[in-house]
Specification:
Elements lengths: L1 H14 L1 H16 L15 H26 L7 H16 L5 H24 L5 H19 L3 E3 L4 E2 L2 E2 H6 L8 H19 L1 H11 L1 H6 L4 H27 L1 E3 L6 H11 L11 H20 L4 H27 L1
Antiparallel strand pairs: 1-4, 2-3
Length: about 325
């Protein structure tokens, strides 16, 4: 009986370890940011305004991580996701500043994101190029396009919704904490969870990611579902690009730099397997929360950009080792 209880506790911890990690990281961050540790210097980490800022970042970058999660579930990878954000952001800014209706500009941007994602899917499934090489080629093309159309920065300060700037729309709160990014991440997460758990296509994504050959033998349209996953990833990248542009009130040529590595790090921390077949969308968002809390703390403690890059790189290496180790254990 005692062994059964112990087994249940171990299984519960294994299935929900990201919840405990999130709690521990936030508690440790609060202690690290306390005046006692920081020699009496106030850094505003625990203040409500900073908590709201963290939630906004979780919403913004969580949407990108969600899209990448779909790609990971089918055993894929998308190295172009960062420059998709850069290209989509530039496209949105160009449209919005050249007289195109704001909502139409958003719609065109999302359509472009979906098209880029679908193109990646075609490269992988129709041309049978490995995802690593195929998306690397697309990344290079998008990088060139971004530098061609947005060599410096495109300001969005003159673009408004009524009398509100785009940044004001991004940061405005509904019921204290429900800003636009938070509302979007709640809606999209609910939709993604329903799709993955309650629809045949969603369940089949796990099947082909876990065992492609078994999926093909079962009559599953693996190429079609793979293209769907990449298309969703592209759409999520475009939504993230719009939100980042709104927050910055501008679109810069480097707005997507490093965002792909951060997203990969977050979703692996959340328990999504890079080899496919396993992932929980809620856990993915919690992984994003862990990374954003750490990033925010480093910013509040005035870490240099070099130190932030170093620590982020170490976290990436650790989570990749963890992913490989846990994957090997499950295979045994």
């Amino acid at each position: 009986m005692a062994e059964t209880t112990r087994s249940r506790l171990l299984r519960f911890f294994k299935d929900n370890n990201i919840v405990f990690i999130l709690i521990l990281v936030y508690a440790a961050a609060c202690v690290a940011a306390s005046p006692m540790i920081t020699s009496g210097k106030s850094n505003n980490f625990i203040k409500l305004s900073n908590t709201l800022n963290i939630l906004q970042n979780i919403g913004t970058y969580g949407i990108l991580a969600m899209g990448l999660t779909f790609i990971f579930l089918v055993g894929g990878i998308d190295l172009s996701i960062g420059y998709q954000v850069g290209f989509d952001g530039a496209l949105f800014a160009i449209l919005a500043t050249h007289g195109v209706n704001l909502w139409l500009a958003m719609l065109i941007t999302v359509a472009a994101g979906l098209l880029i994602g679908y193109t990646n899917g075609l490269i992988v499934t129709r041309m049978r190029i490995t995802p690593l090489i195929g998306t690397l080629a697309v990344m290079t093309i998008l990088k060139g396009l971004v530098y061609l159309i947005n060599s410096e920065s495109i300001s969005l300060t003159d673009v408004t919704v009524g009398e509100m700037s785009l940044k004001a729309v991004y940061t405005s709160q509904l019921l204290t904490f429900l800003s636009l990014p938070v509302i979007l991440i709640i809606i999209l997460t609910a939709a993604a969870v329903y799709f993955l758990k309650k629809t045949r296509s969603g369940v089949n994504l796990y099947i082909i990611g876990g065992n492609l050959e078994a999926g093909n033998l079962a009559g599953i349209n693996s190429p079609g579902l793979t293209r769907l996953a990449y298309t969703i990833g592209g759409g999520c990248a475009s939504i993230c690009a719009i939100l980042v542009s709104m927050r910055m009130n501008a679109a810069t040529y480097n707005m997507g730099d490093g965002i792909d590595i951060t997203a990969i790090c977050a979703i692996v921390v959340g328990g999504v397997k890079m080899k496919g077949g396993k992932g929980n969308m809620l856990m993915c968002i919690m992984g994003v929360a862990v990374i954003q809390i750490i990033a925010n703390l480093m910013d509040k403690l005035h870490f240099s950009s070099a130190m932030i890059s170093l620590i982020t790189g170490i976290i990436v290496v650790l989570v990749l080792i963890l992913d490989k180790f846990t994957g090997r254990k499950e295979a045994m």
